[in-house]
Hints:
Layout: H1 2-9, H2 13-18, H3 30-36, H4 43-77, H5 80-93, H6 97-122, H7 126-133, H8 137-168, H9 172-188, H10 192-218, H11 222-230, H12 237-248, H13 252-262, H14 271-301, H15 312-350, H16 361-381, H17 386-414, H18 426-452
Helix pairs in contact: 4-10, 4-13, 4-14, 4-15, 5-12, 5-14, 5-15, 5-17, 6-11, 6-12, 6-13, 6-14, 6-17, 6-18, 7-8, 8-9, 8-15, 8-16, 8-17, 9-15, 9-16, 10-14, 10-15, 12-17, 12-18, 13-15, 14-15, 15-16, 17-18
Amino acid sequence: MNERSSSKKDPDPKAAQQDPDFLAPRRGSATEKADESVKVPGPATVQAGAVQAGAAGFAKSRRASLIGAIFMMATSAIGPGFITQTATFTATLGAAFAFGILASIIIDFIVQANIWQIITASGKRAAELANSAIPFSGYVLAVLVIMGGLVFNIGNIAGAGLGLNALLGLDPKIGGAISAILAIGIFVSRKAGLLLDRAMIIFGLLMITLTVVVAIIANPPVGDALRQTVWPDTINFAAITTIVGGTVGGYITYAGAHKLLDSGTAGPEHLKQVTTSAFTGIAITGLMRYVLFLAFLGVTASGVLLDLSANPAAQAFEAAAGEWGMRAFGIVLWAAGISSVIGAAFTSVSFMTVFSAKLDQRRRGWATVVFIVVGLAAYLIMGTTPAALLVFAGGFNGLILPIGLTVFMYIAWFRRDLLGGHRIQWWLRILGILVTVLTWYMGVVSFSSIFAFLSA
């Protein structure tokens, strides 16, 4: 009786490995009975073992995707734009820019914690969710994010080119082309998802390690930096808007959340995992931002003048650690550039699905390739210096941030029905409203200053 039941209803181990949902047996199902019978030798035992092995593999894959999402958010938030922006504003504001770094970390925390929870609970991508809440708002958001992502990707390709210039002496445009081609190679690979996760983790760890070493060598005035982190001598809203845009503006806001959806992590039942992942990613980016700022501050505080029209970040690393510092910077900037090219392209193209339901995984892969090629072509044609372009990209995306944030705070407060009944924590919603108002104010105040960077 037991064997006959097993032969009819127990799951096929191959099907279990192919279909993750197959691994979630219902209470009292044949699969659950097979699990209980593992002490009895026979086909049911073998099949139960296969199911358990498949479940373990699926859990491992999901953990890898969560880590990949963390590092996609982190490497996107610490791209070449942020590195160049930090060098530029540290050179002009000195230790007072520490306040801007702190502001960006706090705003990042509030924005990401809200957005990741909202998108994961709904199980929908940002544009589709926005359309469900406010008709046509998703289309507007998608256009803005895709435009901002393209601007950012032009800057990311430029940053990767600058990195190879510092590392190998290549012309920045040749270096940018090589990096863009490598990013395309990752996307067209048969194992694109696995390569994407691993590339993000490797690039992120490499950036953090090298920057910490250079920051120690630079010997910055830590005491003054800590004081001005909370009590600055001056506050520059254009600098804060730009750095916020470079770390959480535009596509970056949604990068990690969309990566989670693609890995199957959706629904209110996953929110604990998602929130922990978001906080971990924010902690990593916050640490990296402050360490990078300290490295640049150590250089500028020693009296070194950086040429802001060239490659100020490279000059700072070279001044701190000589030839080795220049090569280390090249690796850091290149890793930041190529990982951000991947993150910007992946997330921007994920917004295109709102315009066409036919944009499946394969078509999205090819759309991503086209997106990167367009960014590369624009970079090769444009005459703006890479450093100025990277600073402008952050500012432009900082102007986009309050638009999307306004829609999602409306969802958090008034459209619980779209979140599977889940309610975002009251304190997080209140902080979200405050940040929304602040980003609107900073965007209005700094609008003209941001576009001035294009003439640099």
